[in-house]
Amino acid sequence: MESLLEREHELAAVNDLLERQGAVLIVQGGAGIGKSALLDAACRRAAGLGREVVRARGSELEAPFAFGVVRQLFERRLAGAAVREREALLTGPAAAAQPLLLGEPDEQSASDTSFAVLHGLYWLVANLADLRPLVITVDDAHWADEASLRWLAYLAARLEGLALALLVACRPSAAARTDPSLETLLAEARVVVRPALLSEGAVGTLVSAALGGDASNELCGGVWAASGGNPLYVVELLRAAAYQNRPLPDLDPAALLAGGRDGVARLVLARVRALGQSALRLGQALAVLGDECELRHAATIAGVGMADAARLAAGLVRIEVLAGDDPPCFLHPIVRDAIEASLSSDEREAAHRSAARLLYADGASPGEVAVHLVGLRPAGDSWVLGRLREAARAAMRSGAPGAAADLLRRALSEPPAYERRVEILRETARAEASTGREIACVHLEEALNASTDPRERAAIALEVAEAYAALFRWVDAFDVIERALVELGDADGALAAR
Fold first, then answer.
1. How far is the C-alpha of 146 from the C-alpha of 367, rounded, in Å?
2. Dihedral through CA 15, CA 16, CA 20, CA 24, nearest 10?
3. Where are the beta strands (DSSP E) in 29-79?
4. pLDDT number for residue 102
5. What is Dmax (Cα atoms) for the chain?
6. Which residues contact 249 (CB under 8 A, 6 or more apart)?
7. What stretches of 275-417 show up as alpha helix (H) in DSSP?
8. Please, are residues 440 and 432 in contact by the beta-carbon 8 Å criterion?
9. Average pLDDT over residues 337-359
10. Residue 168 to residue 192: CA distance in whole angstroms
11. In 150-270, at which residue ranges do the beta strands (DSSP E only) sit?
C-alpha cells in the first residue's frame, strides 16, 4: 500500500479491513490531521483490488438535508446504471429505497417509511455487494445529516456476511457536534484509528522535499513548531512560499500560522485575492453553494459570465483552493470555510437567499433549497416559509421526521401569518411526535390556545390527547379530552364520538 508519512499503522488497518470485509473502520481526528488522505488512499487501494467504491462527504451546509449523504452515495450510481441492472438492484425489500433515490417519495406517514427506507437502503447495499465487493467511505461524518447517520448505524450492525467495507472519518466528539447514531457507529467499529500529529522529523521531510534538498534544522523546527505538526498547516505554509514566490527560509512560519486555523485562512485568502476580485467572488459563491454545485449557478451569484467563471475556476484549481472544477470541489473544508468567512454577514445572507431562489427555479429538490434557508435571519418572508414547509413534507415522506421537525421549527420563527400559525404548529407537532419528542405536546397546546374555531379546537384537542397518551401521560390526556368535550357540546357528534 502507498506511503503516507507516519501513517503506517493506519494504512495497515485500512489494508486489513479491505482484506477481511464485513466490518467498519473509523478514522477519528481533528481538522487537517489527514483523515481525508487516509480515505483517499483506501479508495485507491480498493480500486486496485477491483472493488466498487462509493463516496460521500458530510458538510455543515447540508446537515439539514435529510438523507443527503445517502443520496451522495447512491443517486448517481443508480441513475447511471442500465435499466435491467437498476431493476435488479432495487428488487425486493430494496424497492423501498427507490422513491428516495430516484424521485420524490410517495405520500406515506413517517412511521410507515422510516424503517422501510432504512431496510430498503440496506438491501440496496447488499445487492450491490453481491454484484461486486463494495467499499463505502464517508468523510466528515460529524457533519452528516441525522437520517444518513441513522442509516449508517443501522448498516454497521448488519455487515456480517456482506462483501462490504465501511470507512468513516470524523472529528472527536469533543470537537464536533455529537449524534447518538454517530456514537453507535463508533461502538460498532472494528477498529478506530486516531492519526497523530507529525513529528519534527516528518515535517522536516516535507520541508526538504519542498525545497528540493536538505533544509536546515532551524527552519524545519520553526515550521514544525508553528504548525504543531498538523499536516494541512505544514502544506499550507509550503504553498504560501510557492505562491508568494518567496524562499521558504525568508518567511516567518510563526507569524504566518498565528492562530492555527485562522492563519491557514489568511494564507488561503491571500492566494485567492492575488487572482483578483472576480476570483474571490466566484470562490465565495462556490463556498455558499457547497461542493459539487453547478458552476453556472456560482457564476450567476458571483455576477460573472460562464466563460470567465470557467477560467477563474481553473485558476482556483491551479492555486490549490479547489481540488477540481468539474464539478467544483474545495480542497479541504477548512479552505471552504476560509473563503465563506470572507463574506460579511449581510453578504452571506444575500448569497444564500440568491442560491435558494436559483436552485428552486432550476428544479432542485426541496431539501437542497432549504439548506440555504435554515440559517437565514427570520424576516417574515412567505416564500421562505413555503420552501421550508415543502422540505419538511419531503423529509417526512422520506422517513426523517427529526429533520422535518427542525425545518418546521425554523418556519415558525420566520414567522408565519397569524392565520397559518395554527396549521404549522400542528405540522411541527406531528413531526415531533413521530420522534417521541415531548415538545410536540407544547406545540399542540399552543395551537389549541391560538385556534378560535370550535371544531378545529376539538380536532387539535384530540391530537394533544394522543400526544400525551404516547408519552404515557394519561391524566393530561384525559384532562384535555374532558375539556374539549365540554367545549364542543352538541356541535359535532361524530367528532365528539372520536
1. 13
2. -90
3. 52-57
4. 87
5. 93
6. 216, 219
7. 277-289, 295-302, 306-318, 333-341, 345-361, 366-370, 382-397, 401-412
8. yes
9. 96
10. 10
11. 164-170, 191-193
Give yes or no for a contact between 414 and 380, defined as CB atoms under 8 angstroms apart.
yes
**Cell representation of residue 246:** 518567496
Whether 28 has a pLDDT exceeding 80, the answer reads yes
Distances (CA, A) of 127 to 81, 150, 290, 333: 13, 20, 31, 33
The DSSP symbol for 166 reads: E
Cell numbers representing residue 139 in the block:
468523510
DSSP state, residue 162: S
How is residue 188 written as a grid cell? 460498532
Cell for 4?
503516507
Q: Rounded to whole angstroms, how far apart are CA atoms 221 and 239?
A: 18
Helix, strand, or coil (residue 470): helix
Q: Can you list the positions of beta strands (E) in 70-223? A: 134-139, 164-170, 191-193
**Structural contact between residues 175 and 8, judged by C-beta atoms closer than 8 angstroms:** no
Return the higher-pLDDT residue of 452 and 374.
374
Name the CA dihedral angle for 410, 415, 418, 420, rounded to a multiple of 10 degrees. Answer: -40
Number of neighbours of residue 332 by Cβ within 10 angstroms: 20
Distance (Å) of CA 12 to CA 6, 18, 191 = 12, 10, 11
Residue 374 CA to residue 346 CA, distance in Å, equals 15
pLDDT for 207-263, tens place per residue?
888 887 777 888 888 889 888 999 999 988 888 877 776 676 677 777 777 777 788
Specify burial of residue 53 (Cβ count, 10 A radius: 0-12, 13-18, 19+).
middle
Sequence-separated contacts (24+) of 476-479 with Cβ below 8 Å = 476/441
Task: Give how far Cα 197 sits from Cα of 5, 34, 140, 172, 229, Å.
Answer: 10, 9, 18, 14, 5
The residue with cell 503516507 is: 4
Contact 449, 427 (CB under 8 A): no
| All structural domains of the chain | 8-193 (3.40.50.300), 200-258 (no CATH), 271-343 (1.10.10), 420-498 (1.25.40)
C-alpha cell at 417: 401569518
- Grid cell at residue 345: 454577514
Per-residue cell: 431:
413531526
> 462 pLDDT band (50/70/90 cuts)?
confident
Residue with cell 514566490: 245
The mean pLDDT value for 413-434 works out to 92
Q: Measured between alpha carbons, how far is 15 from 51 in angstroms, rounded to an integer?
A: 13
Q: Which residues are registered as beta bridge partners of 325?
A: 328
Mean pLDDT of 414-439: 91
The DSSP output letter for 35 is H
Contact between 224 and 203 (Cβ < 8 Å)? yes
Distance CA 130, CA 469 (A): 45
CA distance 317 to 326: 10
